[in-house]
Amino acid sequence: MDHAAGEFTQLIFGDAASEFTLPRTKSVRCATCGDSLTVILQATARCEEGMTLFFVCCNPSCGHRCRD
């Protein structure tokens, strides 16, 4: 089965909070709910850009995503 790049991105972000092997930090607060436990992902946002840090809130009722 073939997938588009956007599908992989959505899958990674959608499961990030429940994936316990990903690095987490308490030093970044969620802008939406204020929770302090956040997953950190590093990926390319676009082919022509370098690596970007993405943060995903671990609060199950929030799941807010942002990038640095």
TrEMBL record:
Q: Where is the TFIIS-type domain?
A: 26-67
Give UniProt keywords alphabetically.
Metal-binding, Zinc, Zinc-finger
Q: Name one GO cellular component term.
A: RNA polymerase II, core complex
The record's annotation in SUPFAM superfamilies points to: Zinc beta-ribbon
**Protein's name in the database:** TFIIS-type domain-containing protein
User: Does NAD show up as a keyword for this record?
Assistant: no
According to the UniProt entry, its GO molecular function terms are: DNA-directed RNA polymerase activity; nucleic acid binding; zinc ion binding
What is one Gene Ontology biological process annotated in the Swiss-Prot or TrEMBL record? transcription initiation at RNA polymerase II promoter
Q: Which organism is it from?
A: Digitaria exilis
